[in-house]
């Protein structure tokens, strides 16, 4: 069988092409594969460069451990346990980190409350941005979990979830437990016991006095009134001194 010169070149070309693809494609594909994104939303990029340059921030804007500012504030960091609405451990360490200026204000709330035989117990403070993404993946409802596209004020180190305790550390009665996503958790809920509504008001007044603002849907959540000064961070809790 006689093969034309053109056909020979064509066969040769195809062979070269195939061997080039089979040799290089797997490596090429692996190198170009995008990192796996855990959320269905377009990947946001609101993270500030402070994530990397925390030590270059002014001291008042750095994340600090609340224990080093006021060790009397009690901790029950729920996302470091399985006792949370996702029934999953999301933090590697049980730590309440806040921007230093916010932590100072919270320490003053504790001092004020001690004068009337009460104190604070915090459930959540600074939350790494990566954890907000995990929460959104598990529970993509903006009424209860911050959409990563905007981030949470917890990601800024300027929000706290907390409750009141007595001198022995026992929690005071509140309208609902923490992370109850019903109307009973709303700041203006008028049901439940009169004592629970009174306690909620004591917490709100004490927080307001030192510059914290509540939100309408969660009696336990407060933002520092200057939260907008602070960018979203993705520093791991274990990295915060
Ligand atoms: Zn909160």
| Terminal Cα span | 80 Å
Q: What portion of residues belong to β-strands?
A: 5-15%
Number of strands: 7
Class inferred from helices and paired strands:
alpha+beta
Helix content: 25-40%
Give the spatial strand order of the biggest sheet. Answer: 2-4-5-7-6
Ions, cofactors and other bound molecules: zinc ion
Identify low-pLDDT runs.
21-44
What is the global morphology?
Answer: elongated
Quick one: biggest sheet?
5 strands, mixed
Q: Averaging pLDDT over every residue, what do you get?
A: 85
Total helices: the number is: 5
Radius of gyration, in angstroms, nearest whole number:
26 Å
What order do the helices and strands follow?
HEHEEHEHEHEE
Verbal overview:
The chain is α+β, with helices and mostly antiparallel strands. 30% of the residues lie in helices and 12% in strands. It is built from five helices and seven strands; from the N terminus they run H-E-H-E-E-H-E-H-E-H-E-E. The strands form two sheets. A five-stranded mixed β-sheet has the order 2-4-5-7-6, with helices on one face. Strand 6 (212-214) and strand 7 (221-224) form a beta hairpin. The longest helix is centred in the N-terminal third of the chain and has 28 residues, at 5-32. Residues 21-44 have low confidence and may be disordered. Zinc ion (ZN) binds next to strand 5.
How are the secondary structure elements laid out?
Elements: H1 5-32, E1 63-65, H2 66-69, E2 74-75, E3 97-99, H3 100-114, E4 118-124, H4 129-138, E5 159-166, H5 194-209, E6 212-214, E7 221-224
Parallel strand pairs: 2-4
Antiparallel strand pairs: 1-3, 4-5, 5-7, 6-7
The structure holds zinc ion.
Zinc ion binds next to strand 5.
